[in-house]
Amino acid sequence: MNIQNFKVSFMEDINERFIKVLDQIGLNGAQLAKESGIAESTVSNIRQGKTKPSTQLIEWILQKYEFVSAEYLFRGKGDVTIGGINTTQKQTGENLSQRVSIAKGYRNSIIEQDFEKLLKAKDETIAAMQRTIDLYEKMVNTK
User: Fold this and answer.
1) Domain count, the chain
2) How far apart are CA 117 and CA 112, in angstroms?
3) Collapsing DSSP states into helix, strand and coil, what is residue 68?
4) What is d(CA 82, CA 104) in angstroms, rounded to the nearest whole number?
5) Which residues of the chain register pLDDT less than 50?
């Protein structure tokens, strides 16, 4: 696949996923435009595949609706929502709030796991650098 085909494929895919997210959270074009501050024509262009949603708009969706999966929206992997939240089902406010809380915990645990991996990699790098320093010190002291 060449870069031009990738761009077209990506644009179609992200538009389809974005529309699916809007449908899942129950936002129509007018509501999205009003809440996010974008023009209704922009929403229409996204729905028609003429343009892709901006990074700022995607970030706004992810901030406002924390149960929406960024992994799904950006890469098309996993479910539309985190933690199995189904916003199309009628739920009590308490139930939805509870599930959003679970989703936030899930998202935080993923962030913590990634952070732990980064820390482990940094520790390994520091240990390797220390071994190099020790080797150089040994070389200098034997001369």
Assistant:
1) 1
2) 9
3) strand
4) 8
5) 5-12, 88-93
Give Cα separations from 134 to 39, 74, 104 (angstroms): 62, 45, 44
How far from the centroid of its chain's Cα atoms is residue 2's Cα?
A: 25
> Is-contact 19 27, C-beta < 8 A?
no
pTM: 0.52
CA–CA gap between residue 36 and residue 29 (Å, rounded): 10
Residues in the chain: 143
Per-residue CA distances from 75 to 22, 82, 105 (Å): 16, 14, 21
Q: Residue 68 forms beta bridges with which residues?
A: 81
CATH code of the domain in which 85 resides: 1.10.260.40
